[in-house]
Design goal:
Layout: H1 6-24, E1 27-30, H2 32-43, E2 57-61, H3 88-95, E3 99-104, H4 138-145, E4 151-156, H5 162-168, E5 171-174, E6 194-199, H6 202-212, E7 230-234, H7 244-259, E8 263-267, H8 275-295, H9 302-317, H10 319-340, E9 345-349, H11 382-387, E10 391-398, E11 405-411, H12 417-430
Parallel strand pairs: 2-3, 2-4, 7-8, 7-9
Antiparallel strand pairs: 1-3, 4-6, 5-6, 5-10, 9-11, 10-11
Helix pairs in contact: 1-2, 4-5, 6-12, 8-9, 8-10
Amino acid sequence: MPEQSVLARLESRLAAIAAHDRRLRALVHLDQDEARRAAAALDRVAERDRGPLHGVVTVVKDNIDVAGQVTGCCSPARGSAPAGEDAPVVARLRRAGALVLARANMDELAMGASTATSVHGATRNPHDHTRSPGGSSGGCAAAVAAGFADLAIGTDTGGSIREPASQCGIWGLAPSPALVPTGGVVPFAPSCDRVGPMALDPALLTRAWDVMAGSASAASDPAPAPTPARIGLVTELAGEPNRPGVRAALATTVASLRRTGVEVVEVSLPDAPGALAAYMTLTSVECLPHLRPWLATGRAGTEVVRRTRLATALLRDDLDRVADAQALRERLAHQCAVALGKCDALLSPTMPTTAPGFAPAGPPTVDVADPLTAPYTDCWTVVANLAGLPSLSVPVGRSEDDGMPVGMMLTGRRGDDRRLVDLGRRLGGAV
């Protein structure tokens, strides 16, 4: 049977978008004519010259530069001048044959965990339209889960790739710091910022990561190596406040890994429960200089204004709190290094709950799991960002509580991203 053309695959994605995105609001910019021209050009490429991502329909988060498009960050303070060139990561994707289709919805300036702060309105979860897809890369996750795209490129400062991946039932990788270039990406907190891939297919995620990290070849798609593995279950992240369905999914995951010959041992990160408070303190201070141009317009949204006031107050009145947060970060990094000296990767749920619900009027309900009230859904993911480690969310099925997707998180040694992805594929295969 002949392989489907890139143009034909594109048309199927455009049909899905036309049918469903008015409700989902996953995408904020789509040029169908340009996408069709790009698809036709890819169909003319000789087979021997095709790259590892040939014809892969891709969306990028609205804080990443694409030549000729406005990088709006879903903010009311966005300008009107288009980017003069692709961000380096987008250029790498195009050279590998990816078809860049659209820009994806997000929380304003990546500050949020629900997309509810987007000037375009909140994205809905494709599995249940009354629920959040997560954030801030929620549009990316929803677009992949809904079949609008094969691949999405998001950013992750405290969980913004992995958390929506978990809520939407897809794979999401926050790579090691500096492994994927962040040029042409609007910064949030550079010491924590990552750019990474999101996909339904782990083999595609692997190829995309290779391309983004600059290490791909056209034949690059090895299966996970069947080598002995030891996984460290983080005790502080395994119990409450994880919801019962998440704890049950974790127990099933551990049992499945053990059945396949993976050794699972308990490890401890004593400072992990305090990581979220430290993260909020440090990133609020770090983001302040990057927010000023947006604030100067007088049109920035309420979350941006809130973070600015928090940072200003911390720097004026509470430098001890900033110092304490930095000290916790350093202790946590050491604890992760000790734990990873005993195992190949750390295991925990990606987040303590499944996708939170939206109120009928639109904004998230006021609840302990409400990411707009407190970023409860980020409480486990921030550990990897603070410690400077790569981290992967792996879909493991659905919660017995509400039938929504659940993700498990693997966190590995810095620079050992490929090993981490291979372990993730083993985990995904086991469950």
